[in-house]
């Protein structure tokens, strides 16, 4: 696919929501999967000559408070890994206005508004997320995990797989309806016990653990796991480029990490 038409590369982070009423937002949980997706997104964007935008999605009923709480750890992650980020922002909380739909689609504006509302499941937050890529910032290059091209990777729970498959289908349906190209690159996952690393696996791969190590060490290891997931130590230090990126997940192995750190710091 030709990505030269894209005006930006976009990576989204689903804001971890570990809040309960009356508790402050002081320690949102980010994991190593977040870190590597952001890192690979920045490297892909740099290779393609695009600015990288990081969008913060979700967060539950206290969205703005959750987002404020996650900004510091995200910024720390960006700084630690040397990620080149042009913009980090909150997802749009509302969809486009009638006038904006009319300016984009003319007489088809009301039709597109109804389609977007349907695609967002009657939820203005979801509508805003879809509109961000297809309308407000079109054409965007969406960089996200391999589970979006193979939903079986997302979870062992069939309901989660079905929900993801529906989400992907809606994205592509809306783009086709609007006569727009859906630009996407899927990056490989980090798995733990054969399952995608996620917030539910915490604190096994909590990002804060990796902050204690020198940034180049973490960065080089994460790149290596994306280039050669079966033997990352064989390619540590190799320059990343898109065509060399594997489609296979890296199954996290603490022994491999320990061996790498011992040799790198000897």
Description:
By secondary structure, this protein is of the alpha/beta class. The protein has one domain (8-16, 24-265): HUPs (Rossmann fold, 3-Layer(aba) Sandwich). The chain is built from 9 helices and 8 strands. The chain has helices spanning 32-48, 63-81, 98-105, 109-119, 124-136, 158-177, 207-210, 215-227, 254-265; strands at residues 8-14, 52-57, 87-90, 140-145, 183-187, 190-192, 195-196, 250-251.
Key terms:
266 residues, alpha/beta, Rossmann fold, five-stranded parallel sheet, three-stranded mixed sheet, 9 helices
Question: In a nutshell, what does this entry contain?
Answer:
The protein is of the alpha/beta class and 266 residues long. It has helices at 32-48, 63-81, 98-105, 109-119, 124-136, 158-177, 207-210, 215-227, 254-265, and strands spanning 8-14, 52-57, 87-90, 140-145, 183-187, 190-192, 195-196, 250-251.
